[in-house]
Amino acid sequence: MATDPFSVVTAGVQTALDRPEVLVPGLVALAVVVWTLTWRLTRTVVTIAHEGGHALLAVVTGRGLTGIRLHADTSGVTHSTGRGSGPGVVLMFLGGYPAPPLLGLAGALAVAAGHADVALWVATGLLLVTLVHIRNAFGILAVLATGGATAAVAYAAPPDLRTAFATAVVWFLLIGGLRAVGELQRGRRTGRRGNSDADQLARLTGVSGGIWAALFWLLAAVALIVAVWVLLLRS
């Protein structure tokens, strides 16, 4: 018997509405990302995850990680030593844009399994590791503020608040990661090219920057879709 698409959508919406503890933090995160003012104030959190992705891949591929810098305009840069070409540097540049949505997806799986507190402590640990490699004052302040808030909630907040906070952060990384890719593509369309990850990858591989940007879109979109299913739609 064929499944009625309308019934499937209705059942999905009802399932989501039955989970306000997940839906409400998601709507809050969506509002923060969509509203330009709050996005400007919070986007550095996505940048921290982005640069952390570069740093992780640099270390994993055997490159020397020499430092991370975060700037007040929400941009960042990760410095490493090693060959200027080859798989290692390609993977390092590839690691930035997928990092926030993939971290968000990992957090979504933890929250769905009832381990929001574990997700918060893991995030705190990752921020502490990142802090060791920050090489400018604004970056230190940004990571300390983010890590301090995360650790404070993980340590002192009641269970319901810990879960709500972790869920909101998860949604923020997923949705914010998608918006960051959109900003990359918009910048490329308006002629601001040259040093973006997609353009660096194009120079290293000969594959056009547009294809790399599309890959970033795909990874971010898939991570968000899977997270929506895990958190909201799964029975």
Topology overview:
Layout: H1 5-17, H2 20-34, H3 36-60, E1 64-70, E2 76-81, H4 87-94, H5 99-112, H6 116-133, H7 137-156, H8 159-189, H9 197-205, H10 209-233
Antiparallel strand pairs: 1-2
Helix pairs in contact: 2-3, 2-8, 3-4, 3-8, 4-9, 5-6, 5-8, 5-10, 6-7, 6-8, 8-10, 9-10
Q: How would you describe the overall organization of this protein?
A:
The chain has helices at residues 5-17, 20-34, 36-60, 87-94, 99-112, 116-133, 137-156, 159-189, 197-205, 209-233; strands at 64-70, 76-81. The chain is mostly helical. A two-stranded antiparallel sheet has the order 1-2. The model has no long low-confidence stretch (mean pLDDT 91).
Radius of gyration: 18 Å
Apparent shape: globular
Physical arrangement of strands within the biggest beta sheet = 1-2
Distance between the termini: 21 Å
Question: Can you summarize the main beta sheet?
Answer: 2 strands, antiparallel
Give the % helix.
over 70%
Q: Which residue ranges are poorly predicted, with pLDDT under 50 across at least 5 consecutive positions?
A: none
**Assembly state here?**
single chain
The average pLDDT score comes to 91
Beta percentage is 5-15%
The SSE string, one letter per element, is HHHEEHHHHHHH
Q: What is the number of beta strands?
A: 2
Secondary structure tally, helices: 10
Quickly give the structural class. mainly alpha
